[in-house]
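Journal club prep — side note

Before the paper discussion, L.F. wants everyone to see what a predicted structure for a comparable chain looks like in token form. Sequence:
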Amino acid sequence: MALPISIQFEQTAELHYDFIKHYYTTNRTVRIGILILVVVILVSLMPVLTGSADSSDLLSLILPIIFILAIWVVLIPYFLKRRLRSSAAQQGGMTGHREMIFSEEDIVVKTNVSESSFAWDAILRASASKQTYYLFIAANQALIIPKDSFQSEADHDEFLELLMGKELWP
């Protein structure tokens, strides 16, 4: 393995949003909450589905569900992205240029305002979305690594080998 591997990229509010989306879609607690919501909706629809209530009751049940889904699918992502952009503008360290150096011993993260080092033992788990890797340093915090930030396919493959060697990747 040709370590260290060095990558550079711009950390954006969109990368943070991608992380939040990934976190909530893979988080077990959130999935259980959604399952409970579906069960509650189905139970509330049972009288209409079994025919023991008239069809006007169906409309009074479906309209709030449509309203809640509209809020969930449209408004929450909009306001979340807006808040992330606002936070990013106020906190210079949240976004901006990043350099990450992966060695056998640790991960060094350099920004325009700081430099941090994370021992591999501090990484709880690794995960990925379509465009990004996440190295979790807490239950809801991760180092965000865009897949396209690797200089070559060889560096990308070495990064995955390093994660496998640290038993963080399948």
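L.F.'s comment for the group: The chain has two domains: 5-12+93-165, 17-90. Keep this in mind when we get to the figures.
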